[in-house]
Specification:
The protein has about 650 residues and is of the alpha+beta class. Helices cover about 30% and strands about 25% of the residues. The chain has 2 domains: about 250 residues, Beta-galactosidase, Chain A, domain 5; about 375 residues, Alpha/alpha barrel (Glycosyltransferase), CATH 1.50.10.10. It is built from 17 helices and 37 strands.
Length: about 650
């Protein structure tokens, strides 16, 4: 894997250290997460964040474990870092942090206090909501280490304040149970029980959200380092509170061995692929509801079917996880209703509210069979997949239907809905409703029909009708989508901007957006790529970290994905950069024989800049294209891994 490590110039600078985040997933949708500097900048940060029935229903438990070293002189040196509502940063342990690194994907800190060097490693037990924090004396005389357990128990999207009841603490052997929800265990436990008031989260402040909470100082653990190599460790876990986890040092060793196996199984071609393989592993989870699922992004997203299917090839087929992928595809197929794939949303409700998620599912199944030769799965799913086509021909929810006039797929839309991946809304109003016939939706429709015809013929069945539907839609696509501007229309046959839904027909939207890339990039793409067109698209949309969602010279362009929720959602698809779109762009360029050798340089450097070892959800549309959104995003990682591996 690539070397991800930082010395005192970054570690000792709070601005640099607090904007680089690490993630250790538990394989169930929970995690440990924080910043290089140790400062909790988000309400989502914590050492034990526990998933509920779904990954989206997470709760924060152990917020931090603040270390203090008692020197032979009697001086106490605090190694934690907190920011308060007053603006003060205290303690300032980051100033003593001489090195931070990810080692086999696990974070390791090293603090120096003169000749005393203390190291911390952290891991989660694979498949369990259990975190192990191991401290080791690297060098120096005997010293005492104290560890303050700072806790809460709340929804990860919210806050808890001291004006409510204090967390309930029950003493148990070696520690305490907090709120009957999670357990702390370690050496020489001393209960305390007091509120720490006004903890500030600077990233939440920047996002225009509530940025303060109160934390509960539950108590402290303590141990003594007699000689270099001695360890002092703490465990925290949820669910089975009467279960005793393995020793903390064993948890770290187990996690490290597992991460190495994950990388080795994928047979990466280079260090970048190895890093992306381990990054991809974070998103593949097993939950109480699903044998295999995909977390769309950390720290705030759960499972979304569109994200899952776009990510499928990169997360599963490029990482030697086809068996797990098979489970996932079968599980999602069981959710089909009226020809639509369930969009398992963060709301906790099963919803059917995408026009493209089901089409991405067709693509994922076709790619699975093409790569693995798993015709048994194709045979099993064929009736359901044919049902998708039949439902779209007849018409399904939200006015989604095949237009009998040309064989293309249209979405009639209803007020307040946004059914494509550009689905942001501000105060309930879609920013980009894209009513009509979106270009990527119809590219996926053409691709899906061809892929399903191929699967049908593999099963020894007649695919004549599918071939006719495919040819009709492909012909219509080629006639309707090329625009006089030199690129493709983003939407055709939509309502005129001055009319409500259902108003004047046949308005064609020629804004320069990246959705058209799918018309050239998919395996059964409706168009052959044209070098001149791709160069026009690149000139307006390509950035070092991905493709803009709208060209800068367009009305409504937003170059900064910053500010409060309304401002951010308003710019989400109006110029914000999306790294996942590098996948379709690279595929289209390769088909056109355009070189993409230099496309990856900046995005590979990005692996050390924001979500360490991973790829962000979004970035600003204007230079320097600062990363935004989730620091760890499934489709960003998956598409980068996929298009690098298929060179």
């Amino acid at each position: 894997m690539i070397d991800i490590g930082f010395g005192p110039q970054v570690c000792g600078d709070l601005t640099g250290g607090a904007t680089r985040e690490w993630l250790v997933p538990d394989g169930r949708g929970g995690y440990a997460m924080g910043t290089l500097s140790g400062l909790r900048t988000r309400r989502y940060h914590g050492l034990l964040v526990v998933a509920g029935e779904t990954p989206a229903t997470r709760r924060v438990g152990l917020a931090s474990l603040d270390a203090s070293v008692l020197l032979p002189s009697g001086a106490r040196v605090r190694l934690g870092t907190h920011e308060w509502s007053s603006g003060e940063v205290d303690p300032r342990g980051y100033e003593l942090l001489e090195h931070f690194a990810l080692v086999d994907g696990l974070p390791r800190w090293r603090w120096r206090i003169g000749d005393v060097v203390v190291e911390r490693e952290l891991a989660m037990l694979p498949g369990q909501p259990c975190v192990a924090v191991v401290h080791r004396l690297v060098s120096g005389p005997p010293v005492r280490l104290e560890l303050a357990a700072v806790c809460t128990w709340r929804d990860a999207h919210g806050e808890r304040r001291a004006d409510g009841p204090a967390p309930r603490m029950e003493p148990v052997d070696g520690g305490a149970v907090i709120e009957g929800a999670f357990r702390l265990a370690g050496p020489d436990w001393t209960p305390e029980g007091q509120w720490w008031l006004g903890v500030h989260h600077r990233e939440e402040a920047a996002r225009g959200l509530t940025c303060e909470e109160d934390l509960w100082y539950a108590g402290r653990f303590a141990g003594r380092f007699e000689r270099p190599g001695d360890t002092v460790s703490v465990l925290a876990w949820a669910d089975q509170l009467d279960w005793q986890p393995p020793p903390a040092t064993e948890v770290v060793a187990t996690a490290r061995r597992r991460n190495r196996r994950v990388v080795s199984a994928a047979r990466p071609a280079d260090a970048v692929e190895a890093t992306l393989t381990l990054a991809a592993d974070a998103f593949v989870v097993r939950t109480d509801r699903a044998p295999v699922d995909v977390v769309a992004g950390y720290p705030w997203f759960g499972a979304w079917s569109r994200d899952t299917m776009i990510s499928y090839e990169g997360l599963f087929l490029c990482t030697d996880r086809a068996t797990e992928g098979r489970e996932l595809l079968r599980s999602y197929a069981a959710t089909l209703s009226e020809g639509m794939l369930a969009n398992t949303a963060d709301t906790g409700r099963v919803e059917y509210n995408t026009v493209d998620g089901t089409l991405w599912f067709l693509h994922a199944v076709a790619r699975h069979v093409a790569v693995t030769g798993d015709t048994d799965l194709a045979d099993e799913l064929l009736p359901a997949l044919r049902g998708v086509v039949d439902a779209h021909l007849a018409g399904t929810r939200y006015g989604i239907a095949v237009d009998p006039a040309d064989g293309l797929l249209t979405q009639g839309g209803t007020p307040g809905t946004a059914l494509t991946w550009m689905d942001a809304r501000v105060y309930g109003v879609p920013v980009t409703p894209r009513t009509g016939k979106p270009v990527e939706v119809n590219a996926l429709w053409v691709n899906g029909l061809a892929g399903l015809a191929e699967l049908t013929e593999l099963a020894g069945q007649d695919a004549g009708e599918l071939r006719r539907l495919h040819e009709r839609a492909r012909t219509a696509f080629r006639e309707r989508f090329p625009a006089p501007t030199g690129w493709l229309y983003d939407v055709v046959d939509g309502p005129a901007p001055t009319y409500p839904l259902g108003g004047a027909p046949h308005h064609d939207d020629d804004l320069l957006r990246p959705n058209q890339l799918l018309a050239w990039s998919l395996p059964y793409a409706p168009l052959e790529p044209d070098e001149a067109t791709l160069r026009r698209v690149a000139a307006g949309l390509l950035t070092p970290l991905g493709l803009r969602s709208l060209s800068p010279d367009s009305t409504g362009f937003s170059g900064r994905h910053r500010g409060g929720p309304a401002e951010r959602d308003g710019g989400y698809h109006q110029g914000t950069v999306w790294p996942w779109l590098l996948g379709p762009y690279v595929d289209a360029c390769r088909r056109s024989k355009l070189s993409v050798d230099e496309v990856f340089m900046a995005i590979e450097a990005h692996l050390t800049e924001y979500g360490l070892g991973s790829v962000s959800e979004t970035a600003d549309g204007l230079p320097p294209h600062g990363a935004t959104g989730c620091p760890f995003q499934a489709w960003s990682v998956a598409e980068l891994l996929r298009c690098r591996r298929t060179r």
